[in-house]
């Protein structure tokens, strides 16, 4: 059942984040989320998300009509608003209750202003009259007449002696409030639609339908300036605080900002999609806020060219906007009958744009040594930037466009290659060209330097790669050519080298990639698959992975060592122009001309999220700490915080506005009925590196989880290594965990690398023992798909061979020498795990894994290849410890046997037995110390201690010659314990290992039988006593006779008739019936143990390995998680080819069908409920038709269920026949 937590339902009734937090703390379901948690507790992440969500989500105040104008009283207690329906309302800001609502006019009201400390309100509308009402009771006080069209705006002077208005009658009027007189100060050529008065009340500005802005000097009483530029009617206008700027918004979604000193156009803000009707400046005049008929509020930075912040939330036109006095809140009202209160962002420096190039930029390099950025373009410029100060440092001018550029290894020189066949080396200290090489008849399209500083490499239009020895230009030494390669068929567009400088990688116009060995100058291999030019190549920092980006809109991920294609990604729709690997190798970034920059998980090459830009993305890079992202956006360099490394909270995703994901998550947490939206799963929540799928798991939203996995939503570890599965385990949501395990099984076929998600969860998975766990474990180690691996090996080779590796790439030479592999012989197969596991003997991780494995509630995991390989590998390493122990104990038993038969009572011969016993006792004490309380969980340890102390007591008593008769009985007890303990050492041998479990199970199953046998034996003993009337022997002797009768001792001499009758009953019940009952019980026990023999064997093996590893306490801090790789014989006969395997497979099919029916039943039930709810809501729909469809769906589900039941019955019948 899904957990429903009503979390944010109080948002609608709270006005501040503090109010919301108080209400949330009172909620018993989630109140604990507001306590302090350690960083390793998942609740700390959820707590942070909730608190930030409350701050980001706009506060909503419902109002009874479509808001048109909005004002806030001076005491900040109430909103006053009017509407196009002619109504005026007052709403308490804190309680969100409408305290007054009255209809003042049959025509619409479009202008509103508060007057005289909020005692009065002036309103104007279509009837061209300005009305003055007393605010307390809405009593009409006065009318101001003069306009002949709709009143558009009303303003008052600071002393409230003057009123300024504009109207659809084209006029702008000034009113004397003492007598109500007015005069027209100027007119527009069309409707006058908006007005603003500067704070010093010197200027007044208006905008009209004539697409003109008039600026009027109130002191000199003349039109100061007429401004053109807008292409349609002007609906919003505003002066900045200091009157340095004037902004106007028009009906074509444009916002124009003029410099009031010279009236030049400073900027045109482009982004809105409909009329811009409201404008506000922050007091610092660095930020302007606009609202529009496109239902958005946008926040623009004016001091630098950044992308605007977009707020979405209104569902209709925004008609009015104002700022709070502290400039921390934005108030908007809309025709959606709501007032929304938005938070002004505290930090607007998250994004920055560097402008300077006039054509497309080709490269963006970062000098870590100098903290500078270098860019080159076809505009004949290479520009050096300071990314910290966000300023241009220097322009390096060329005579032609610059196609290629790189830094030398020491970062002292910049190499540029132009379209005029020149290669120039620039001294970065002086910004002067140090050397200019004229290239003969070729244009260099790609250039790079090897990381060791030995070579620089060029790729040109003549399909040539030239490797030249690097010499510092200041040395004036000749730079000889080392190698020339010509493998490509035409232009070479991209170059890269491995970080160890051993391999050069080239990409050409023909779509091919070629690898060269720079040590010997030969070709290493070729990678084919792209259909168009290779524009970029990037090598992972460990030199294992190559990513190639092409103009065919794909990027491919290759193994450099194996020349093997891991994956082809078709996410982008434009050319791939840049790839960047993070320093921690957790992710990589891809830039494309489809205006997207995407982020990908390095471990399984899966999608995380993407950002959308305004123009072509031509290159990508990051700062040395990966915290700042640099994206070449056509001719500009866009700078912002890296979503994957930022420490600030935020939502990053495909859309410009994050309001959609904020609302979606709020509804999820608030347990509102919201359908799964896969687009919302694409958003990243920073700095946690979480997404909506993490929240589905945390709040036990099973259907959302199932759909997310089915649709391939991003699944990845958070910054604290949490993923949906770990959250389900931590929260003990079994159903969700089983859903994820089942989904990961299916995902393995597409991408086995996704199994990295469970690497840190194996111990917890074992402890939980989920139903799907054994099936899931079958996928943790799978056959390699690498077709380049050998298929045969020398028949004399010893197999299997198990290795550990830092990578899951299989290198055959590590398993056996090359000459061992043949074209025919023993057929082999390579296997590799796709999870790293610490199998270091004695390490803490290894011990914890073994303990969880032994205690796992799902023993079927022992049947999986993954567990078998691990246990057998460990046993090969530690078996000498257990065999040595067995040898010592065997010596002890041998000496004890000789002592018993030949030297009983000899103190001298007992001495070596006593010495070995002391050694074994010391071993037990050592085990107690290293194992702690876990020592007492093994029953054999109790037997060991008892035997050891018994031996000590016996030896001491024999030595001091005290209680010899009692000591003889003590020796009998010692001998019994010693031989019983010796049974356990048969675990060392595979053929007898399961017999230990069989003996244990037999004794366990015989408990009830022995009780019944004792009852019967006791009963017949009493009957024999009754026959003899208690005369003769004691009761003990009769009990002995009865017990011997059970064993077949039939002494019937002198029996009477009654004796024979009792004897007959006793012999039938005890020896015959009981014996056959015992045989039946033991037979059932044997069958059960035999069926689980494999599990029993491996569990015994795990316990012995754990015992050995526990001893190696000094290795607890060692260990490293590695992949497991296996070379074994090709399996000719799989388990399913045996009858037992077939039965097991049929049982698994039964379980699968049961799960399918249950899942479909759950889905059907939820769909049924949703459809019923929709029937209630859709009043205009034909209910009969909808109900008919529901009934039809119900019938189809019933038919499906019956068909599956039929299949189950057939399988059961087959199983019964097999028995």
TrEMBL record:
WD repeats lie at residues 144-185, 185-226, 227-268, 269-310, 311-344, 354-386, 485-526, 527-561, 569-610. This is Ion transport domain-containing protein. The keyword Membrane applies. Pfam families: Ion_trans (PF00520), WD40 (PF00400). One of its GO terms (molecular function) is monoatomic ion channel activity. Residues 914-1091 form the Ion transport domain. It comes from Blepharisma stoltei. It is a multi-pass membrane protein. The keyword Membrane applies. Keywords: Coiled coil, Membrane, Repeat, Transmembrane, Transmembrane helix, WD repeat. Residues 1190-1217 form a coiled coil. It comes from the Eukaryota. The chain crosses the membrane at residues 880-900, 906-926, 970-988, 1009-1027, 1060-1079. CDD domains: WD40. Its main location: membrane. GO terms for cellular component: membrane. InterPro entries: Ion_trans_dom (IPR005821), WD40/YVTN_repeat-like_dom_sf (IPR015943), WD40_PAC1 (IPR020472), WD40_repeat_CS (IPR019775), WD40_repeat_dom_sf (IPR036322), WD40_rpt (IPR001680). It is found in: Membrane.
């Amino acid at each position: 059942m899904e957990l429903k937590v009503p979390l944010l339902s109080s948002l609608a009734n709270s006005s501040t984040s503090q109010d919301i937090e108080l209400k949330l703390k009172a909620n018993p379901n989630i109140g604990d989320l507001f306590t302090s948690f350690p960083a390793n507790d998942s609740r700390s992440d959820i707590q942070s998300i909730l608190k930030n969500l409350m701050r980001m989500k706009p506060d909503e105040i419902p109002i009874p009509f479509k808001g048109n104008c909005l004002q806030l009283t001076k005491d900040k207690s109430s909103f006053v608003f009017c509407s196009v329906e002619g109504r005026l309302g007052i709403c308490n800001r804190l309680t969100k209750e409408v305290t007054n609502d009255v209809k003042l006019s049959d025509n619409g009201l479009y202008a509103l202003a508060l007057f005289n400390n909020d005692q009065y309100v002036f309103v104007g509308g279509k009837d061209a009259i300005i009305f003055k009402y007393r605010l307390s009771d809405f009593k009409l006080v006065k009318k101001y007449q003069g306009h002949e069209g709709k009143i558009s705006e009303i303003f008052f002077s600071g002393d409230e002696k003057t009123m300024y208005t504009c109207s659809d009658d084209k006029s702008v009027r000034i009113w004397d409030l003492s007598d109500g007189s007015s005069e027209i100060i100027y007119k527009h050529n069309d409707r006058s639609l908006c007005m603003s008065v500067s704070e010093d009340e010197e200027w007044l500005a208006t905008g009209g339908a004539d697409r003109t802005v008039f600026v009027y000097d109130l002191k000199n009483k003349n039109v100061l300036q007429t401004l053109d530029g807008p292409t349609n009617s002007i609906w919003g206008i505003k002066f900045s605080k200091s009157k340095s700027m004037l902004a106007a918004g028009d009906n074509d979604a444009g916002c124009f900002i003029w410099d009031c000193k010279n009236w030049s156009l400073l900027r045109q803000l482009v982004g809105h999609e409909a009329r811009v009707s409201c404008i506000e400046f922050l007091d610092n005049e660095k930020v302007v806020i606009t609202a529009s008929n496109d239902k958005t509020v946008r926040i623009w930075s004016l001091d630098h060219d950044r992308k605007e912040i977009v707020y979405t939330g209104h569902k209709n036109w925004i008609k009015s906007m104002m700022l709070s006095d502290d400039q921390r809140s934005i108030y908007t009202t809309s025709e959606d009958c709501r007032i929304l209160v938005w938070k002004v962002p505290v930090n607007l420096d998250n994004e920055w744009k560097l402008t300077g190039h006039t054509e497309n930029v080709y490269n963006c390099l970062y000098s870590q040594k100098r903290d500078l950025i270098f860019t080159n373009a076809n505009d004949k410029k290479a520009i050096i930037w300071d990314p910290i100060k966000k300023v241009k440092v220097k322009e390096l001018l060329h005579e032609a466009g610059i196609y290629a550029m790189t830094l030398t290894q020491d970062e002292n020189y910049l190499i540029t290659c132009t379209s005029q066949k020149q290669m120039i080396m620039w001294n970065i200290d002086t910004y002067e060209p140090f050397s200019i090489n004229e290239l003969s008849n070729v244009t260099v399209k790609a250039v790079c330097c090897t990381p060791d500083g030995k070579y620089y490499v060029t790729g040109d239009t003549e399909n040539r790669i030239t490797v030249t020895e690097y010499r510092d230009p200041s040395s004036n030494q000749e730079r000889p050519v080392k190698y020339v390669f010509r493998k490509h068929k035409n232009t070479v567009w991209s170059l890269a080298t491995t970080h160890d400088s051993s391999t050069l990688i080239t990409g050409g116009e023909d779509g091919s990639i070629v690898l060269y060995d720079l040590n010997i100058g030969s070709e290493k291999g070729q990678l084919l698959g792209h259909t168009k030019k290779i524009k970029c190549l990037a090598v992972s920092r460990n030199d294992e992975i190559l990513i190639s980006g092409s103009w065919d809109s794909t990027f491919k991920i290759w193994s450099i060592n194996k020349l093997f294609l891991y994956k082809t990604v078709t996410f982008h729709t434009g050319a791939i122009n840049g790839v960047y690997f993070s320093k921690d190798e957790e992710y990589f970034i891809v830039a494309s001309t489809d205006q997207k920059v995407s982020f990908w998980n390095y471990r399984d090459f899966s999608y995380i999220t993407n950002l959308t830009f305004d123009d072509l993305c031509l290159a990508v890079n990051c700062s040395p700490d990966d915290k700042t992202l640099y994206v070449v956006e056509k001719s500009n360099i866009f700078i912002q915080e890296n979503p994957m490394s930022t420490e600030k909270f935020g939502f990053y995703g495909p859309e410009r506005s994050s309001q959609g994901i904020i609302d979606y998550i709020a509804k999820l947490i608030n347990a509102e009925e919201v359908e799964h939206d896969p687009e919302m799963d694409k958003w990243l929540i920073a700095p946690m590196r979480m997404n909506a799928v993490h929240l589905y798991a945390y709040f036990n939203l099973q259907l959302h989880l199932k759909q997310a996995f089915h649709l391939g939503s991003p699944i990845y570890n958070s910054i604290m290594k949490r993923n949906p599965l770990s959250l389900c385990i931590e929260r003990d949501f079994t159903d969700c965990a089983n859903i994820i395990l089942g989904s990961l099984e299916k995902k393995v076929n597409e991408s086995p690398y996704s199994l990295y998600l469970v690497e840190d969860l194996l111990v917890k998975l074992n402890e939980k023992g989920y139903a799907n766990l054994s099936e899931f474990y079958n996928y943790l180690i799978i056959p390699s798909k690498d077709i380049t691996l050998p298929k045969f090996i020398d028949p004399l080779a010893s197999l299997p061979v198990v290795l550990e590796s830092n990578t899951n790439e299989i290198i055959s030479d590590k398993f056996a020498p090359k000459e061992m592999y043949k074209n025919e012989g023993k057929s082999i197969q390579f296997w590799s795990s796709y999870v790293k596991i610490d199998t270091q003997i004695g390490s803490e991780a290894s011990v914890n894994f073994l303990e969880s494995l032994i205690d796992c509630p799902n023993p079927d995991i022992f049947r999986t290849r993954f567990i078998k390989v691990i246990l057998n590998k460990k046993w090969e390493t530690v078996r000498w410890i257990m065999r040595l122990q067995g040898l010592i104990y065997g010596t002890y038993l041998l000496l004890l046997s000789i002592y018993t038969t030949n030297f009983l009572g000899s103190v001298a011969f007992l001495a070596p037995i006593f010495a070995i016993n002391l050694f074994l006792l010391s071993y037990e004490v050592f085990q107690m110390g290293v194992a702690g309380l876990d020592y007492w969980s093994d029953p054999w340890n109790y037997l060991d201690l008892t035997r050891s102390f018994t031996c000590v007591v016996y030896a001491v008593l024999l030595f001091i010659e005290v209680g010899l008769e009692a000591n003889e009985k003590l020796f009998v007890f010692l001998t019994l314990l010693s031989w019983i303990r010796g049974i356990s050492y048969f675990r060392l041998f595979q053929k007898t290992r399961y017999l230990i479990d069989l003996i244990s199970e037999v004794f366990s199953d015989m408990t009830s039988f022995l009780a019944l046998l004792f009852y019967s034996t006791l009963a017949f003993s009493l009957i024999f006593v009754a026959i003899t009337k208690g005369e003769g022997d004691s009761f003990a002797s009769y009990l002995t006779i009865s017990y011997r009768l059970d064993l077949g001792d039939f002494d019937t001499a002198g029996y009477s008739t009654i004796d024979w009758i009792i004897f007959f009953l006793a012999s039938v019940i005890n020896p015959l019936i009981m014996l056959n009952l015992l045989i039946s019980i033991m037979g059932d026990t044997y069958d059960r143990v035999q069926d689980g023999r494999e599990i029993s064997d491996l569990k015994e093996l795990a316990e012995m390995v754990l015992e050995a590893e526990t001893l190696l306490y000094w290795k607890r801090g060692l260990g490293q998680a590695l992949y497991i790789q296996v070379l074994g014989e090709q399996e000719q006969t799989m388990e399913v080819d045996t009858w037992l395997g077939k039965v097991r497979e049929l049982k698994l099919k039964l379980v699968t069908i049961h799960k399918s029916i249950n899942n479909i039943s759950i889905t059907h039930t939820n769909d049924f409920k949703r459809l019923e709810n929709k029937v209630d809501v859709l009043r205009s729909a034909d209910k009969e038709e909808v109900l008919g469809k529901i009934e039809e769906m119900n019938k189809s589900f019933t038919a499906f269920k019956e068909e599956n039941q039929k299949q189950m019955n057939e399988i059961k019948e087959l199983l019964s026949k097999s028995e």
